[in-house]
Amino acid sequence: MSRDASTIVPEDMHVDLNIGSSERSGLERIIDATDLRIIIIGKTGTGKSATGNKILGKSIFTSGLSASSITKTCQLGMNTRFNRTITVVDTPGLYDTDMRIEELKKEMVRGMGMTVPGPHVILLTVGIGRFTVEEYESFKHLINLFGLGITSCIILLFTSADVVEYKGLDIKDYVKNCPSLLHEILDLCDNRYMGFNNDLYGTREEQQVKNLIGMVDEVVHRNGGFCKINKIFEEAIWKLLILEDEMQKKVTEEEQRKREFHRHHNQNKLELRIQLANNQMFVKRDWCVTM
């Protein structure tokens, strides 16, 4: 039997998972049926970037085999596919990354802010094979940062599904026998999962993405259009956006100041050259007169 949510969520964290429409923020009431905003998270090496490329239908994110996270900062990709405007945010690898935990948290907040007015779904990529305690701890950090409500919009995506198929098994068979820690996460996410093969191409690849979008649409409909995130976190997004806007303004002002300085500097140099040229002409004229 799996442990309850208290094993993952701190006792002092109180999150209402049944938020009424009257309590939802203005952000959550802005719904566009053609728009689809996705954030992909997961451990390094679980195919986050490759999955993002498959969903978008073109190579935008850098992906490859690496022991350390290739994606160091959140990257945003967009494409129009299946009559949908799809936005995907690729994030740095959880746990086994060169980034410090505080840097990772800040980057994750920034990634969430890139989906304003908010993500529709979060895909947690999980590799086929050993599920580690570190991955479980990373999920706990995620809950601590975003609130328990975030589990209502998480879909576990088992990448390298071809490995299971090669053994003549179904992804359901794999999930049935997966580690207890992974079962806990699945329970919190209402057992939303899907096998995903990043080696598919053509019509099979398109159908796989359509199936995923169909599952995402079900989650969106159930959640009333948006991921149920902590109000505290929602405020953090706005603060971050305001801070970034202020920083951009400072950078712009500094660039303008530098341009103005160079303009004045070049103007002074030009005036000095003109003055020197006039002085030289004056000296030559005096020399000619004395001759």
From TrEMBL:
One of its GO terms (molecular function) is GTP binding. Pfam families: AIG1. Residues 33-237 form the AIG1-type G domain. The keyword Lyase does not apply. Keywords: GTP-binding, Nucleotide-binding. The keyword Nucleotide-binding applies. InterPro entries: G_AIG1, GIMA/IAN/Toc, P-loop_NTPase. Belongs to the TRAFAC class TrmE-Era-EngA-EngB-Septin-like GTPase superfamily. AIG1/Toc34/Toc159-like paraseptin GTPase family. IAN subfamily. PANTHER family: GTP-BINDING PROTEIN A, GTPASE, IMAP FAMILY MEMBER-RELATED. This is GTPase IMAP family member 4. It comes from Mytilus coruscus (Sea mussel). The lineage of its organism: Eukaryota, Metazoa, Spiralia, Lophotrochozoa, Mollusca.
